[in-house]
Specification:
Helices cover about 50% and strands about 10% of the residues. The protein is built from 3 helices and 2 strands; from the N terminus they run H-E-H-H-E.
């Protein structure tokens, strides 16, 4: 009789533990979404690029309207390029970094 009572208590506790773990595992199935803010963009110079076409490509990456480019934006990109490379001539394959907050 004692053995039967212990077996009943053990199986009851096991059943309660499995049910609570099943219920708690349902709560963990939610997908957590995080947004990552990009602070810099690496640009590579392609064949035929000029500062105006580089600025248009940068505006497309920033999801801004490329038709709203001003000459101040082009001059800013040219200044950033000159500061990083020390030259104002574009070389195919050369890379430089633009900080996103400078164009927002």
């Amino acid at each position: 009789m004692k053995h039967f009572v212990l077996k009943f208590i053990t199986t009851s506790l096991f059943f309660i533990a499995t049910q609570s773990s099943v219920l708690s595992s349902d709560d963990k199935n939610f997908l957590k979404v995080h947004t990552v803010e990009v602070s810099q963009i690496q640009m590579t110079i392609l064949h035929g690029d000029g500062f105006f076409s580089l600025t248009r490509r940068l505006f497309q990456v920033l999801e801004k309207n490329p038709n709203n480019i001003t000459w101040e934006d082009v001059f800013l990109l040219k200044t950033i390029y000159q500061e990083q490379t020390g030259s104002d001539e574009l070389v195919v394959g050369e890379k430089f970094i633009v900080l996103k907050n400078e164009f927002l």
